[in-house]
Amino acid sequence: MGYTLCVLGCGTMGIAITSGVLASLHPQSLLHGLNSGQPKWESHTPGTSTPTPVADDDPRLPSRFIACVQREESARRLREKFRAVLGGDAVQVTVGANVSAVQLSDVVLLCCKPQGASSILNESGIKEALAGKLLISILTGVTIAQLSAWVFPSTTVVRAMPNVACRIREGMTVVSTLPSSDSEGLSKQIVLQIFSSIGRCRFLEERHFDASTALSGSGPAFACIFLEAMADGGVMMGLPRAEALELASQSLQGAARMALQPGAHPAQIKDSVTTPGGCTIAGLLALEDGRVRSTIARAIQVATERASELGQPTTK
Ligand SMILES: NC(=O)C1=CN([C@@H]2O[C@H](COP(=O)(O)OP(=O)(O)OC[C@H]3O[C@@H](n4cnc5c(N)ncnc54)[C@H](OP(=O)(O)O)[C@@H]3O)[C@@H](O)[C@H]2O)C=CC1
Ligand SMILES: O=C(O)[C@@H]1CCC=N1
């Protein structure tokens, strides 16, 4: 029998992670369709993630899910969503019952706003309910030292920084290196299993978390600005909007997948596209005139600085 996973604060990211993990555990379920939506275009869109084989007795895999939210309205929507795709109560959704949800769980995924951590973890009984368990926080800016001060020493605290693409199992998650006492233990296996089932997962020291938050946590938003702008250019030149978005999206996906190939480098890919005297170099020079590289790099810098402020007592 696997373990019980409690998603404490099941909003955008809680839903993305839960949906991704459920889809990996139930490859035949409608979750795949729901997560990726109906194909927008008629073009062939091959799937990319390989389903994780289900093994009910694997202690690294969750077999029961509890989602905690604050408002009844959110709870109702979540129940409908998960019931619709799994046809039962695969995910138990609770409101105002964080302590009992944590008591019933083995692993807790903290997915509330950074500003909400203090009140959620200071609720009477939570500390005791978390004793001896694994607490994985995806909160921006809230440090392991802060989290550890709110729980007993027997609670294993791990930070993770996923992104919204976990929803379609194409996420990028950075996980803090575990304490040496647990560096090869079950906690590490559980964390790896969760996040590698919904995308890529990499361990990094905590000092890199704010930059990782800006780069891969916020990254999908930055990429979508570029994507929208490319599509706008296509529309300006007469392409229909839907086709322009398809062309832009698939081009970005293709370029990113090429860049992820072993030994590949973005500059080499760019050079291979750039015919001497051709149209690509004309477009590249227009981009450079707009200081596109320093603008994008500065966005990561500013987002990193802001990430470090979030979750701190003096920050709104
Ligand atoms: N959005 C993103 O792309 C990313 C976000 N993050 C981090 O993930 C965290 C969550 O972000 P996001 O999912 O966008 O935020 P959301 O606001 O979408 O989700 C927060 C959830 O917490 C719930 N909640 C609030 N208070 C309580 C409470 N007292 N008890 C139980 N549940 C509660 C809310 O319930 P209700 O719905 O009822 O209000 C909501 O479901 C943040 O810390 C953020 O920094 C990290 C990486 C990417
Ligand atoms: O904007 C934010 O603060 C969060 C963290 C990364 C993505 N969204």
From TrEMBL:
NADPH binds at N98. Belongs to the pyrroline-5-carboxylate reductase family. InterPro entries: 6-PGluconate_DH-like_C_sf (IPR008927), NAD(P)-bd_dom_sf (IPR036291), P5C_Rdtase_cat_N (IPR028939), P5CR-like_CS (IPR053790), P5CR_dimer (IPR029036), Pyrroline-COOH_reductase (IPR000304). NADP(+) binds at L8, G9, C10, G11, T12, M13. Residues 36-59 are annotated as: Disordered. One of its GO terms (molecular function) is pyrroline-5-carboxylate reductase activity. Residues 64-140 form the Pyrroline-5-carboxylate reductase catalytic N-terminal domain. The keyword DNA-binding does not apply. It holds the Pfam family F420_oxidored. This is Pyrroline-5-carboxylate reductase. Its EC number is 1.5.1.2. HAMAP family: P5C_reductase (MF_01925). Residues 206-310 form the Pyrroline-5-carboxylate reductase dimerisation domain. Pathway: Amino-acid biosynthesis; L-proline biosynthesis; L-proline from L-glutamate 5-semialdehyde: step 1/1. GO terms for biological process: L-proline biosynthetic process. It catalyses: L-proline + NADP(+) = (S)-1-pyrroline-5-carboxylate + NADPH + 2 H(+). Keywords: Amino-acid biosynthesis, NADP, Oxidoreductase, Proline biosynthesis.
